[in-house]
Amino acid sequence: MNIKIQGGGSGKYANKGSCKGVAGYLEHEDVKRISQGQELQGFFDQERNFVSRAEVEFKIDHNKAKLCCDDSKFYMITVSPSQEELAKLGGTEQERIAGFKAYIRENVMQSYAEGFGKNLNRENILYFGKIHLERTGQSGDQMHAHIIVSRKDLDNRLKLSPMTNHRGSGRGAVKSGFERVSFYEKCEQSFDKRFGYERGLEQSFQYRNAIKNGALEDIAKLAVKSVTNELTRAIPGLGIVKTIKTVISITKGKDKGMSW
After folding, report:
1. pLDDT digits 0-9 by tens, 36-93
2. pLDDT band at 118, cuts 50/70/90?
3. Structural Rg of the chain based on CA atoms
4. Residue 229 is inside which H or E element, if any?
5. What is the CA angle 175-177-183, rounded to 5?
6. CA 36/CA 31 separation, integer angstroms
7. How far apart are CA 107 and CA 113, in angstroms?
8. Among 43, 101, 184, 202, fewest CB within 10 Å belongs to which?
9. Are the C-beta atoms of 203 and 115 separated by less than 8 Å?
10. Across the chain, which distance is largest between two alpha carbons, in Å?
11. What is the pLDDT of residues 177-192, one digit of tens each?
């Protein structure tokens, strides 16, 4: 699962002005699908499957109370499952699209809302998603989603920036910022639970993040976890305690020059 939060700069995800440019860009696949007689995938929100581009632009562009001209007005979340993950969404394209939308509405956006630590739920977030079914130059099932999400909550009251790091405020349990790591992990875990996907450790965000940013100790812990998982699958009923003892035994044997 590849999830990105983007927004800023002067490119296609510039977000200090109107969202018209981004909304227009997201319709690039529509002309081809219409010309080929295929079903059009319009914008969707928390409740509806078809929302007009005009409504998307109007609601995002007018949900900016007390934001300055140089403030971000919206962000883009891109959710790109692997082909193995997409296969778990359903047997037909229609089933996969329906499953993907349900996952975004109920899991991704809920995890996003929770990431701010403000007791928010998915119903408090103003967003519009768009399913794309192709990627230029790539074959196979390439379904992914782009989500335009407002900087302000649905009531146009709270400022919500997923680009701001989470930090303790120093005053009780009050929190500020956004828990990005927790957001990515929750999206991944909820997908696995929802669709019964058995994710290998090497496919996990935890593993990729440790390899990219972690200390040697974190990587070593993940290596032990990987061996533990493999032994548990290879020897059903071994039990977690016996599995850990087996891993320790193997590790000690390795230190003595024994082969794996």
Report:
1. 888 889 999 999 999 999 999 999 999 999 999 999 999 999 999 999 999 999 999 9
2. very high
3. 22
4. helix 216-234
5. 100
6. 9
7. 10
8. 202
9. no
10. 69
11. 899 999 999 999 999 9
